[in-house]
Amino acid sequence: MKKAIQISDKIFWLGVNDRRTHLFENYWPLPKGVAYNSYLIDDDKVAIIDTIDSGVMDDYLENIEDAINGKTVDYLIINHMEPDHSGAIKAIIAKYPNIQIVGNKKTFPMLERFYGIKENLLEVKEGDSIDLGTHKLNFAMIPMVHWPETMVTYESTNKILFAGDAFGSFGTLDGGIFDYQVDLEYLEDEMARYYSNIVGKYGGPTQTALKKLSGLEIDMICATHGPIWKEHIPEIIAKYDKWSKYETDEGVVIVFASMYGNTEKMADYIARELVNNGIKKVRIFDSSKTHPSYIINEIFKYRGVILGSSTYNGGLFPTMETLTNELCNMGIKNHVLSVFGSHAWAGAGVKNLLKFAENIKWELIGEACDSKCSPHDEEYAKCKDIAEQMAKKLKELY
Ligand code: FEO
Questions:
Q1: Which of 183, 216, 244 corresponds to the end of one domain?
Q2: What is the pLDDT of residues 203-224, one digit of tens each?
Q3: How far apart are the CA of 156 and the centre of ligand 1, in A?
Q4: Which of 24, 57, 148, 340 has the most CB atoms within 10 Å of its CB?
Q5: What local confidence, expressed as pLDDT, does residue 58 receive?
Q6: What residue's CA is closest to ligand 1, atom 3?
Q7: 36 CA → ligand 1 middle, Å
Q8: How many domains are there within the chain?
């Protein structure tokens, strides 16, 4: 079966779905799988733009051959070196040994270290272009969206942006390739989770990239994951703009780490009081049950964050420690925070949450509440105060 799908004049989608991998980058859950998109332009000169993960290469080379009917491939454009897109490079070179590998000066050291490839390299810089015949490829650097070497390729004849990870999504392409063919509602949270989990650390570089690309006339965005954007381009650009500015809505994410349910009782109490004070969007997560991927995604949506941890081995409960480390590493901005927790004999959970507040530089709302063994009236009164202060702050902000 021919799997190369023509998406424009002489341009083909060569993507594959991955439903087997449980964890993207061996960390982020993939309940709906993921697609790796590769593209081919069959002009006087033939170019492939990005490849796929080596674990799902089954028919990839045959699909290339089908698309070009015995011709050779002249260029392999590497927009991004992460192995989910560079995994087939060696196989392509083995099949087309004279192929020119197109990247920038940050691409090639990675290419050598990952795959030992150092020949037939064609270095491009910002604004350089390659003429394929009818189609013309223009290159622009978008460092840190999502790695330092990342660039985009703009095909100016058909106004197609080959965007790398930018505008990508988790989720396989189940029959549909274009945005108007897929159920975007079904994919909506996978788009957000892809952004928040993978690109979310790089809000500043994403803003720079959006500004740079805003001057281009774009009729189609071909990302390396998720649907091809054609009819919903303004919407996906608006989403990226909002996410990369760390803009949030009114609401609160409460995350608790609780050994025997005492910290959880406080979380529930705070949630009730938030609702009593007019906050409707309240999401509670148990950090022992929900992967940080989903919690981080919710934190990207809502301004308020309330974290509660029991003390464990003289520190934070391990799953809360993982979450707070992730949040610090990602440097997520623009939140307000309250903290609470419980301990049996030495209160280190809340102390460490206060340290986290200092590190991440989110505004601390209300007074931290630490219960000994289990919450009593005094602690419930403090939890009530946390909820009231948080609700008041959010009402001021929205
Ligand atoms: Fe899809 Fe950064 O790789």
A1: 244
A2: 999 999 999 999 999 999 999 9
A3: 24
A4: 340
A5: 84
A6: 82
A7: 9
A8: 2
Which of ligand 1's atoms lies nearest the C-alpha of 164? 1
pLDDT at 3: 80
Based on the fold, state whether residues 259 and 202 are members of the same structural domain. Answer: no
Q: Identify whether residues 132 and 263 lie together within a single domain.
A: no
Residues with CB under 6 A from ligand 1: 80, 82, 84-85, 146, 165, 224-225
Residue 75 shares a structural domain with residue 35: yes
The range of the structural domain enclosing residue 319 comes to: 252-397
Rounded distance from Cα 82 to ligand 1 centre (Å): 5
Q: Could you say which residues of the chain have pLDDT below 50?
A: none
169 shares its domain with 203: yes
Read off the CATH number of the domain in which 20 is found.
Answer: 3.60.15.10
pLDDT at 2: 63
Distance 202 CA to ligand 1 centre (A): 13
Kindly state whether residues 224 and 99 are assigned to the same domain.
yes
pLDDT tens-digit series, residues 30-73: 999 999 999 999 999 999 999 999 999 988 999 999 999 899 99
> What confidence score (pLDDT) does residue 344 get?
96
Query: Would you state the pLDDT for residue 1?
Result: 58
Secondary structure in 3-state letters for the chain: CCCCEEEECCEEECCEEECCCCEECCCEECCCCEEECCEEEECCCEEEECCCCHHHCCCHHHHHHHHHCCCCCCEEECCCCCHHHHCCHHHHHHHCCCCEEEECCCHHHHHHHHHCCCCCEEECCCCCEEECCCCEEEEEECCCCCCCCCEEEEECCCCEEEEECCCCCCECCCCCCEHHHCCHHHHHHHHHHHHHHHHHHHHHHHHHHHHHHCCCCCCEEEECCCCEECCCHHHHHHHHHHHHCCCCEEEEEEEEECCCCHHHHHHHHHHHHHHHCCCCCEEEEECCCCCHHHHHHHHHHEEEEEEEEEEECCEECHHHHHHHHHHHHHCCCCCEEEEEEEECCCCCHHHHHHHHHHHHCCEECCCCEEEECCCCHHHHHHHHHHHHHHHHHHHHHC
